[in-house]
Design goal:
It is built from 15 helices and 17 strands. It has 3 domains: about 140 residues, 3-Layer(aba) Sandwich (Cobalt-precorrin-4 Transmethylase, domain 1), CATH 3.40.1010; about 100 residues, Rossmann fold (3-Layer(aba) Sandwich), CATH 3.40.50; about 130 residues, 4-hydroxy-3-methylbut-2-enyl diphosphate reductase, catalytic domain (Cobalt-precorrin-4 Transmethylase, domain 1), CATH 3.40.1010. Helix 4 links the parallel strand 4 and strand 5. Helix content is about 40%, strand content about 15%. The longest helix has 19 residues.
Length: about 425
């Protein structure tokens, strides 16, 4: 990785947590959420039983990233402060940062020549040396670091520690001559940053697979049943520029975007390892295949908590979080297997006047859909969880709207 001048590179904040704490609490804390915790994560009123998963919302990495962004604005009130993309994938949090006067740098289009490796992930043209640049919780690519070093601006790095752990794993794969097979979304900021870690070594290679279906296509190729031309065409956008499946699927190390569905990441690793064993034998697998569980603990905790909640009888499940939040999408996918589920981006998605809920259908990258009669009449049990980038204040607002649909004012609950 390109190193930055230590006097310009900040990774541990500015020691201003106490100065910004009151503002953070006012923006993101939620009274109703605190009340639900006190009542065994349950509220009962107006014929509704509202159950909250025991792990939800802001994780440590998100809290840290948002805290550092607030500290940066407090530290440099008169400087131009930029954010490389979004600090996290939550529209409310990013809107609040814009209100604070933080500018957002645009992403480099993925179809731009050299976008995967030659260009930085973000456009730094507006940045001056005297400005301050905040790096998001997802991290940025090695090329971004190189551009920032040349610019000479102050850089505040909020990259999550769990992401850094994956980077170390991918870099080790590249160092030892293994292709990094990454379970993730090739266009996601985190995966782009993770894939770039192979550039620390001249022979480093990567390939990104979105899901088990794509992983099985990789397995087919490993076992000699793939079409080279078709494979290269399909994965051109998701592989290192000079990727050659005949050469670079001989030694493979599996990693993942930290917010993917944990069980699928583990299953993909098992599938690829088994394919290598079928193709070349047990000894080959032992020497040429590596795998480590790099799902972050917060993602795992939230997935485990929602699975526990789904063991209870529920009529409907609400999952709140950004539509581009991978960990929220994973939670919604888990829930939809057991109960009618609505992935909503904000409490405003519950339209009180029209009696509808606006939501993103699970498993589809489509426009919002609307549902009427989504909340059963009479007694009903509603489950709630939230992605790791969703603040408690938004969870509380959603609960308040649910109660209001049954004529209950949240303020009357002691």
């Amino acid at each position: 990785m390109a190193t930055l001048d230590s006097s310009l590179y900040v990774r541990k904040g500015f020691g201003l947590k106490s100065e910004v704490q009151a503002t953070l609490a006012a923006d993101y804390d939620g009274r109703l959420v605190d009340l639900m915790r006190e009542r065994d994560y349950t509220l009962e009123a107006g014929g509704l039983t509202v159950r909250l998963a025991r792990e939800f919302g802001f994780c440590y990495g998100v809290e840290r990233a948002v805290d550092y962004a607030y500290q940066t604005r407090h530290k440099f009130p008169d400087r131009t402060v930029w954010l490389a993309g979004e600090i996290i994938h939550n529209p409310h949090v990013n809107a609040r940062l814009r209100e604070m006067g933080i500018g957002f740098l645009s992403a480099t289009p993925l179809d731009a020549p050299g976008a995967r490796d030659a260009l930085p992930a973000f456009d730094y043209a507006p940045v001056r040396p005297e400005d301050v640049v905040i790096l998001p919780a997802f991290g940025v690519t090695i090329r971004d670091f190189e551009v920032l070093r040349a610019l000479g601006s102050v850089v505040v790095d909020t990259t999550c520690g769990s992401v850094l752990n994956v980077w170390k794993r991918v870099e080790a794969y590249a160092r030892d001559g293994f292709t990094a097979l990454i379970h993730g979304k090739h266009y996601h900021e985190e995966t782009r940053a993770t894939a770039s870690q192979v550039q620390k070594h001249p022979e480093g290679r990567y390939l990104v697979v979105r899901d088990m279906a794509e992983a099985r296509e990789v397995c087919e190729y490993i076992e000699g049943r793939g079409d080279r031309t078709a494979f290269l065409a399909k994965y051109a956008h998701a592989a290192s520029p000079d990727f050659d499946p005949d050469l670079h699927l001989v030694r493979v190390g599996v990693a993942n975007q930290t917010t993917m569905l944990a069980r699928e990441s583990l299953a993909i690793a098992d599938e690829v390892g088994a394919a290598m064993e079928r193709a070349h034998g047990t000894e080959h697998r032992a020497e040429h295949f590596r795998s480590f569980d790099t799902i972050c603990s917060a993602t795992q905790d939230r997935q485990d908590a929602v699975k526990a909640l789904l063991e209870e009888p529920l009529d409907v499940m609400l999952v709140i979080g950004g539509y581009n939040s991978s960990n929220t999408i994973s939670l919604a996918a888990l829930c939809s297997e057991r109960v009618r589920t609505y992935h909503i981006e904000s409490p405003e998605a519950i339209d009180m006047e029209r009696g509808v809920v606006r939501y993103r259908p699970v498993g589809r990258h489509t426009e919002e859909a609307e549902a009427r009669d989504w909340l059963p009449a009479g007694p009903a049990r509603v489950g709630i969880t939230a992605g790791a980038s969703t603040p408690n204040s938004k969870i509380g607002e959603m609960v308040s709207r649910l109660l209001a649909m049954r004529g209950v004012e949240a303020a009357t609950l002691a």
